[in-house]
Amino acid sequence: MSDSSLFATEQARGRAAYRVYACTILANICLILYYRATHLPATWQEGRGAWIGLSLAEFWYAFYWILTQSVRWNPVHRRTFKDKLSQRYEGKLPNVDIFVCTADPYAEPPNLVISTVLSLMAYNYPPEKLSVYLSDDGGSILTFYAMWEASQFAKHWIPFCKRYKLEPRAPAVYFSTSDCPTDKSHQEEWSGMKILYEEMTNRIDAIVMSGKVPEELKANHKGFSQWKPEMTSKKHPPIVQILIDSKDPNAIDDAGNALPTLVYMAREKNPEYHHNFKAGAMNSLLRVSSLISNSPIILNVDCDMYSNNADSIRDALCFFLDEEKGPDIAFVQYPQNYNNMTKNDTYGNSLTVINEVELCGLDSWGGPLYIGTGCFHRREILCGMKYTKDYKENWNRRSERNPHDDIRKLEEKAESLATCTYELNTRWGHEVGLKYGIAVEDVITGLMIQCRGWKSVYYNPPQKGFLGVGPNTLAQTILQHKRWCEGNSQIFLSKYCAFIYGHGKIKLGLQMGYCIYNLWAANSIPTLYYVIVPSLSLLRGISLFPKMTSPWFIPFSYVMVAKQTYSLVEALLTRDITVQGWWNLQRMWLIKRLTSYLYGGLATLSKIVGVSKMGFTITAKTSGEDASKRYEQEIMEFDASSLTLAIIEFVALLNMTCLVCATTRAVMMGWAIVLEMYFLQILLCGSVVALNVAIYEGLLLRKDKGSIPWSVTLTTLAVVMLVSLLSRV
């Protein structure tokens, strides 16, 4: 690192010890596979088929474990020097466009959306160089009304934040987590600001509840006239409204400073045209913003991911503006963190291991995935530019529009860029902008950028850059991971598979890292096999593992114990996961493999053979009051579909039945004999039972609305009894 560098890259500690551990695991995995191959039961012996199936499952686990080493072998951490940035570039910082996407005012409440927007408008950055765009795919007048309210409130909120250096700057979060200051000079202003905010949110909630904006309020802004009675969320013309124009000398806050530009966009929707979900919205924003502000740097965030660090833009610019390495960097990715996780993370949604370990590991191979939120891009590269060694960014790029031009004409011209037909017979969605046709448009777009020769950077500051709302029920969790899994499976089974598309373009370690997520679905079948067949074999008295006195017992027991011990240590070292949180993570690891990844894989296959088409379901950002209370109490909410609950229950009840039968056999035959023969199978079966304690509680002990319905339980119990009886025939 030179003295002029704006950031530093540091190797993670403890890598030598980890590599020794990994080598011992690899050696023992090889011994396990050798044992399976050389101890195959004869054709006339019971359990031959189960043995072969178990061997294939273990071979898959070995391959997948090798893939996971790519993100643990040499992780790196980044550190920025914002003081150097200020000294060198303060007077010539580039303009920044910020994209926020929403689609449904009921799944994503407008008050949540504008809280995010207000936090982004209040960055520690020259406001005249900021432009915030909201894409509303629902084309809702309710969301536009909330944005108009936010444009008025911003005049008071932004100077208030900067005067007192508030964090976070999302008013919904700030006022819900902060007490009134003790300083009397600050108290009055704080209380007044809170009253202003609550009055605004109450007005917005009332409008959303009524479903319409009163005529007297529509007179406050010309934009309300764009909505006609016949418009729906699935069919409406393009709407672009500039709520605040930073070039307007009258667009100032209470302190007399310029306000950031604020733009509302609803691209045209028509059932006759495919709208390409979030990727289509982002591409429309790229075109519309190029006309209004055309900033060289773009930040995109989800509508619930508010800014939690007012210096995030400056941190990102430390990478882009670095003289030595900056020209190679296409995007800077922040982690996706949530602010509504319980202490022990009931549904394993904190993504802590991914954020603290895996993305750092990918960074050492050329950069992390683009995960669709909290990401800073270079506009030109997002629009398809290929890598060249002599590339130089034009940091002075901005829209050439005249500040005296008629705003309505500018809006109409921008609307022409957001029509359904604009992209027909163009490269948009293929070589320009975000890629279409894949459910995880962000991941495939990032891969294509890296394969064009660019690098990316992962930055995880001590003070999180962005915080959002994570799933807080079982159904929401399964839905979100099913969608992620489906998109990643589509990538692997297409020409964009990292091993094929990335061959010779990105490093092997990065190819392997992508495939960790691309192959989530492939884990479902081996997992189903491993939690069902050994338990049924135990029920039948068939041993599938070495005896305790056999030397081959050592590699099996070592891998089982060492891997789980390392997993626990890795989680605890992040300092964000408790022991109970780790245990919950293991439970959800099992549940997701049995449901989300299975469903995602099947959905992908059905699309490939033409049975169904790609869809997109928004993960709700709210839940019922009773469900929210149970979530806060860390009680699982069994609100998933009957089929999903049946799969989870089947595995839980089957393993409980098999464990009870094994215990009975041990009592009758003697513990020493049974443990000698079946210890590892009993351990595996017992582990599944222990992981499912919360499931048994939902089955037998709970009476609340979040428990498992008796109809599902009785049906599943009957199936378990039938399978148990048939397995013993």
What does this structure look like?
The chain crosses the membrane at residues 20-37, 49-67, 514-532, 594-620, 640-662, 674-696, 708-726. Keywords: Cell wall biogenesis/degradation, Glycosyltransferase, Golgi apparatus, Membrane, Transferase, Transmembrane, Transmembrane helix. This protein has 729 residues and is of the alpha/beta class. It is 51% helix and 9% strand. It is built from 26 helices and 13 strands. The protein has helices spanning 15-38, 48-68, 82-89, 110-121, 141-164, 171-177, 184-210, 215-218, 277-292, 312-320, 352-363, 379-382, 407-415, 441-451, 474-492, 498-501, 508-518, 524-540, 553-573, 579-594, 596-608, 625-632, 642-669, 671-691, 693-701, 710-727, and strands at 7-11, 76-80, 96-102, 130-136, 239-244, 261-266, 297-302, 306-307, 329-333, 337-338, 375-378, 455-458, 466-468. The strands form three sheets. It has an eight-stranded mixed β-sheet with strand order 5-6-4-3-7-11-9-12, with helices on both faces. Helix 4 links the parallel strand 3 and strand 4 (130-136). Helix 18 crosses helix 20 (579-594). It is globular and about 90 Å long.
